[in-house]
Structures are given as C-alpha cells and as structure tokens.
What does this fold into?
Amino acid sequence: MNDIVEKIVAGDVRTVARLIRDIDDGMPEVREVLKDLYPHTGNAYVIGITGAPGVGKSTLVDQMVAHLRKRDKTVGVLAVDPTSPFSGGAILGDRVRMQRHSMDPGVFIRSLATRGHFGGLTQSTRSAIDVLDAMGKDYILVETVGVGQDEVDVVRSAHTTVIVVIPGMGDDIQAIKAGILEIGDIFLINKADREGCDKTMSDLRMMIEMDQKKYDRGAWKPPILKIQAVFDKGVAEFIDEIDKHARYLADTAGGLDFRASKTKVRQELGEMIKARLIEEVIDRLTESGDFDRAVESIIKGKIDPYTACENLVLPTLS
Amino acid sequence: MRQKRRVRVMVAKPGLDGHDRGARIIARAYRDAGFEVVYTGLHQTPEEIVAAAIQEDVDMIGLSSLAGAHKYLFLAVVELLREKAADDIVVCGGGIIPDDDIEKLKESGVKEVFTPGTPLDDIVKWVQNNVTPRQD
Ligand SMILES: Nc1nc2c(ncn2[C@@H]2O[C@H](COP(=O)(O)OP(=O)(O)OP(=O)(O)O)[C@@H](O)[C@H]2O)c(=O)[nH]1
Ligand SMILES: [Mg+2]
It folds into this structure.
C-alpha cells in the first residue's frame, strides 16, 4: 500500500491535512493517491448543510458535532467559504464557532475556499470527503453558503442535504424554490427564537406539499423543523430526523452505499469526466499559448469567439 | 486544474483580552493580499491554535495579543509546533510587547514581532517576503 494511503487510513492528521491541500491546489500527483484511497472509502455518512450567509450554519455544525460525539461517532467537517473575486484571497471564519472541538482527536475540521475552480469545487470537495472517509470518520458534515450552483452541487452529493433558513426570509424562500428546494431532504428554520417563524413554516410547507403526489408514491417527504442552534434547541431532534432519512435511504432508496448506486455513479462519473476534460483542455491550451493567441485575435477582430472556440477545442479531442 | 499554491495563514488570538478588532483588520488585509486566512476567534489556548493550524495546513500563524501573557503564549505555540514536528509553520506575533521580550521571542523561534502602529502594508509585505506556500 502507498505510504500516504497507509498513513491516512491510520488517521494521521498531518498527512490528511496536507493531502487536502494538495487536492485543493490541483496537484496532479494526488490522482494516484485518490485511486488507492478509493477502496477505503464508502463508510462515512455525509451530510450537506447549506443556506444563506449568516443563518447559523456553523453554529449548527458545532452543535451537531457535540451531539454526534456524545453518541460516540467520529466527525469530519468541511466548511466552505467564498473566495474574494478581487484578490483571490478568502477569510475562512466558520471555525470560530467550532473551535471547542479542535483538540478532540475524534474530530477533524477543515476550512476550504471556493477559489475559481471552473466547477471544480464539487470535485475537490468530493475528494476531500473521500479523504476524511478513508481516515475513518463516521460522519462528514459539509457546510457551504447556498449561493452559487457550485456550492449547491457540493451539498447535493451528500446522503442527507439540509437547507437552513431563518424567519422572515420571504424572498429568500422564493429563491430556494427556484433553485434548491428539490435537493433539500430536511429543512430547518433556525433562530426560531425570532419573530415570523410560523409564516416561514407555512411558506415552506406549502412549497413542499406541492409535490404531495411524489410522497404518496413513497418518496421521502422533507420534514421542517424549528431550531435554535445557538441554544442547542431542537438539534437532537434534527439528528433523529437524519437517522430517519438514513434508514429511508437504506431501506427504500437503493442503499447507503452510493458507490453501488447506478444513478449516483452515473452522475459522479459524468461530473468527473466534465471536470477532467476542462482541466486537460485548458491546461494544454494555456501551456501552448494558443489560448492567449486566440484572445488576442478575437480582440483584434480577426476571428469570432465561436470559431476560435471550435478551433481550440476540436483538435485537442482528436 | 493545476493551480498556483495559495498562501494559507491562520490568525489567532490567544489569551484573555476581550476584543478582536485588530485581528479582523489584519485578516482582511491578508485576504486582500490574496491569502487564504483561517480565523479562529478569541480566547484560544496554544494547544487549540496548534491543533487547528495542523488541520488547516497553514504556512503561517499570526498571533495577536494585547494582554500581558504574550511571552508565555507565543513561546508555547512555538514549542508545541516543534513537538508535533510542524515547526515549518512560521510564527509571527503582534501586540504591545517590550523590546527585551521581542529579542527573546525572536531567539526562541518567533520569526517576527509587530508592535502597534506598524502599517498594515508593511506586515503584509513581510508575509509576502517571508512566508512561502509549502513546496513539497
Ligand atoms: N438568535 C439566534 N441567533 C443565532 C442562532 N443560531 C445562530 N445564531 C447567530 O447567528 C450568527 C451567525 O451564525 P453562524 O453560525 O456564523 O452563521 P453561518 O450561516 O455559518 O454564517 P456564514 O458561514 O457566514 O454564512 C451568530 O451570531 C450566531 O450566534 C439562533 O438559534 N438564534
Ligand atoms: Mg459559517
């Protein structure tokens, strides 16, 4: 067995931390490691948590970690924050809410930036999930700000996808409807200590019940829970709902091992091919200078971007 | 996608003093310089700081402390990093620190100490010149 793989399976924190950095930095060497790591994955239960900025996702993750630890489960956390489009830098502040777990050997917390990944965020986060999975973590919690398609895609590959809203987010609920309603397995109204909870509850319920026919045919009907993450209210009940959803997946929806699910594998392999293709093509075109030359030609009006694109892409495929 | 390695730094506030305005300002300056900044919040023990730095695979830890215990706290971080064979992580610090102590801190492995009033630009430049993303 590869030396790195051995250390990861043994749970060596430094090696895990470094491999995740290498994945994030797009080091080509990691591909071999990931191949060897694959047989050691597939055991973790992955929970994706998304919602608008500031709704209390990190506070909730912190409480979830505490509850899961009480149940003797080990936990990995990936907390994704946006990269500044201006500087390429990022402030990764989710950890502030979770620092009480930093010295617990049963918990591994990692902050990630979205970077400018050409849709590669999903790929790199998924690989990071695999690393924590191979490291032996029972649960992996992934926090993203539910704004971009990428961030949404990240959580959608989870076993259970959780959408967090707060009271009085009327317009935001419209946005959820447009984008991420379909992917929510559990809806949480956090900050239920605030005004407007019932209205948000009935808005959400109405949206979910539009799919009543689906549930009548046996599909999972997403529960809506009121919680107060910062006061640890409703979190235990929320985790019970996760358990229920896991049982539903295991009994009805083709099992918990997504690696044996045709739909999931189709989807993941498809995305992987897409990401890899883009990567290979862009790398080649930047290295050869063809990309920059094409940009110049378009600017000077010598060629239209449609033809330029075709001229660039088609030859790399043959 | 082959990307350039990004500098990752952690901004941490050990000790008991109660506000983190300074730490937040420096965190923003680092972000604007293109670094990824992990922020861990107030009242961190050296043990928590080092554990977090290792999980986050940062290249540098910037400690800021206004309370008197900086000497013990900064040195404890350096010592713990050494213990964990993670002393390739650069440690720098800022705060109201007497010259004598600055000397001692530097001798013991704190790479640089910034006193109040050091322009943000100078701090950022120092990081750019002295902290490189890990190459291996
Ligand atoms: N009143 C109230 N405040 C809460 C509750 N849960 C969290 N908060 C507060 O909401 C604020 C934001 O919490 P975070 O956990 O950082 O929110 P987040 O969604 O992770 O934020 P981003 O990562 O920046 O998008 C903090 O000040 C929390 O203390 C709650 O149940 N009630
Ligand atoms: Mg957060």
